[in-house]
Design a protein that fits this description.
- There is one protein chain.
- This protein is of the alpha/beta class.
- It has one domain: Rossmann fold (3-Layer(aba) Sandwich), CATH 3.40.50.
- The strands form two sheets. It has a seven-stranded mixed β-sheet, with helices on both faces. A two-stranded antiparallel sheet has the order 8-9.
- The structure holds adenosine-5'-triphosphate and magnesium ion (MG).
- The site of adenosine-5'-triphosphate has 17 residues, from helix 1 and helix 9.
Amino acid sequence: MRTISIINQKGGVGKTTTTVNVAAGLSRNGKKVLLLDLDPQGSVASCIKQETSKNLYHFLVEHADLRECINHIGMNLDVINADASLAKAEQILVGEPNRESILARAFEDVTDYDYILLDCPPSLRLLTQNALFFSKEAFIPVSTDVLGYDGLIKMVQIITEFNQVFNHNLKVSKIIPTMFDSRNRICKEMLNRIYAEFSSSLATAPIRVNTKLKEAPRAKASIFTYDPKSSGAEDYWNLVKGIIADEKMYDSRIPKEERKSALRKHFGVRKIQIEEPQQAVEVLVTHKFSKYGWTTF
Ligand SMILES: Nc1ncnc2c1ncn2[C@@H]1O[C@H](COP(=O)(O)OP(=O)(O)OP(=O)(O)O)[C@@H](O)[C@H]1O
Ligand SMILES: [Mg+2]
């Protein structure tokens, strides 16, 4: 199983669009997917057909039966929605002990999915912390503009700090450039900066600007149903294929040593000298430059 937060504290960069279409694409490849909306704006709900009135709030706070909160969208895709009540949940749960692991504990027994995808809100409050704590991986969609690039660097730093504070090992496993317009100079510049900074094994091909991606939610459909010939469908399908190809590095059902060796093969390793203690350590080469230091992700 893989648990993946789709996260960026910057708003409007394509988190929800990416989560919904990646979930749809994975399920079309025969993967069993659970999509959790963690955003009190409830954007996922506006992209899909609703079957149940219960949502994540009812599951987390009122301890409703999980089955009552799940929307079955197609054969392999389940969705748990959110709405404004989730903000109330946050206020209630903030007083709980070990509050960063509420979500992880609530979903402890949910193991019959290939993928759990978490659509995060554009904030770093309690629910987002819970998403990060629950997840083993993070996908960071990043808009190909100046602010988007700055937000990406911040996000990577935040995840590094989060891992230190909570002794967690969340790996950034995809950086997804979005809203890419090849006629726009800034977009091209920013895409090149992303590729200059991060390993090409981490930063994916860009998702192009495509109005069909804006229209699909109105039809309550994924881009693959709404317009399979669109560039949006092509870009998200390629992304999905890349995600599936990464399973050997991240799927918890594969033995740890095998995953570790696949990671090293994929990214390459580099020895860095650290001062205390005086020895060299090996890090995966995910960054290409030294401004932020070599990090293991
Ligand atoms: N590649 C794209 N081309 C054109 N429009 C897009 C693309 N990706 C997303 N959009 C549109 O941009 C807007 C913001 O996208 P989305 O809601 O996915 O971002 P978000 O990061 O989830 O936002 P928030 O931070 O508010 O949750 C939406 O109207 C969406 O339809
Ligand atoms: Mg969103």
